[in-house]
């Protein structure tokens, strides 16, 4: 099926920065209604970090990262980024890229918002 590939994770000092990349297939990127980033710390539930609409939609952020993280897209490269600044130890976890592969039209007709059914394999972020 559709494939999402994350990169850019690593180990950084508190207060440092990282930029995560999520490369999508051209077919998926041209069609998908939205994409987003999620994370999961060891022993904790997965949580949403940021999402962005790809068809004129707005961006949304978890309160815990607002003002520090920015989600960006590059249409020419079929890629979504997560710029993470002023990283804190509580940001440590596995970060996943996800997409709703449906077209905006399909999503609107269905009456559902972003439904993330396509997932990358994850990239580790460690802050200490």
| Number of helices, where a helix is a run of at least 4 consecutive DSSP H or I residues | 2
* Low-confidence regions: none
Q: Percent range for helical residues?
A: 10-25%
Strand content: over 45%
Determine the N-to-C terminus distance: 36 Å
Characterize the main sheet.
7 strands, mixed
Structural class: mainly beta
The arrangement of helices and strands along the chain is EEEHEEEEEEHEE
Q: What overall geometry do the principal axes of the alpha carbons give?
A: globular
- Tally of DSSP β-strands: 11
Structure characterization notes:
The protein is mainly β and 128 residues long. Helix content is 10%, strand content 45%. It has 2 helices and 11 strands; from the N terminus they run E-E-E-H-E-E-E-E-E-E-H-E-E. Strands 2, 4, 5, 6, 9, 10 and 11 form a 7-stranded mixed beta sheet that branches. Strands 1-3-8-7 form a 4-stranded antiparallel beta sheet. The chain is globular and about 45 Å long.
Strand and helix layout:
Blueprint: E1 4-7, E2 10-12, E3 18-24, H1 26-31, E4 34-40, E5 47-53, E6 59-61, E7 69-74, E8 79-84, E9 93-100, H2 104-110, E10 118-119, E11 123-127
Parallel strand pairs: 2-11
Antiparallel strand pairs: 1-3, 3-8, 4-5, 4-9, 5-6, 7-8, 9-10, 9-11
